[in-house]
Amino acid sequence: MAGILDILNSDLGKQIISGVSGSTGNDSSKTSSVLTMALPVLMKAMERNAATPEGAAGLMGALSGKHDGSILDNLGGFFGGGVDESAKQEGAGILGHILGSKQQGVEQVIGQKSGLDAGSVGNILKVAAPLLMGVLGKQSRESNVTDSNGLGGLLGGMLGGSNTANEQSFLEKILDADGDGSIVDDVAGMVLGGGKKSGGLGGLLGGLFGK
């Protein structure tokens, strides 16, 4: 199964990066950097949400309904003339559901690492969220996922490309932030190599995120 970062590096991923970049007015390399960091975090958050029966049922319902992957068949239509407001609102709803109170902290940390402000990161993620759901829906259809066990396996498999302990620990640290802003000091210090906490993790994340 293709990992989420493998998909981002594919032709489909390049189309998504180009479209998200154009529709949010951000540089494509920075957009790519944001998505490379954010998509594994969103996947990890979904994996955690899907660990509960309610979370799994909700995600299964979304993937078998509106988010069945068909959005990927017409990316030209999705991005053509700019992404419409309803799609952005839907993306905002998806992010709120996945990240909850962690959303602000996640956007701040990714903003610091990518060189964009948190608002720009938020705009990129709003446009990308329905596409990520589409990727998941397509993969779940192709893998014939019908229950929560299959769903957990799908999410874990797509995260498998970034499955080292340190990277998982980084994703957990971001997601365990309480969104009050202090996470930026802790995690950004760790990621950007500030202070004694950086160690191998900063270098490893630098490699993961192409920095």
Q: Would you give an account of this structure?
A:
The chain has 211 residues and is mostly helical. The chain is built from twelve helices and no strands. The longest helix has 25 residues. The chain starts with a helix and ends with a helix.
Give a summary of the structure in a few sentences.
The protein has helices at residues 4-8, 11-24, 28-49, 53-64, 75-79, 85-99, 103-114, 118-142, 148-159, 165-175, 182-192, 199-208. By secondary structure, the protein is an all-alpha fold.
What percentage of residues falls in helices of 4 or more residues? over 70%
> Structural class of the secondary structure composition?
mainly alpha
- Annotation, overall tally of beta strands: 0
Element-by-element helix/strand order: HHHHHHHHHHHH
Helical run tally = 12
Gross morphology is: globular
Quote the beta fraction.
under 5%
Low-confidence spans? 188-211
What would the average pLDDT be, to the nearest integer?
A: 82
Radius of gyration: 16 Å
Largest sheet: none
Calculate the terminal CA-CA distance, rounded to whole Å. 26 Å
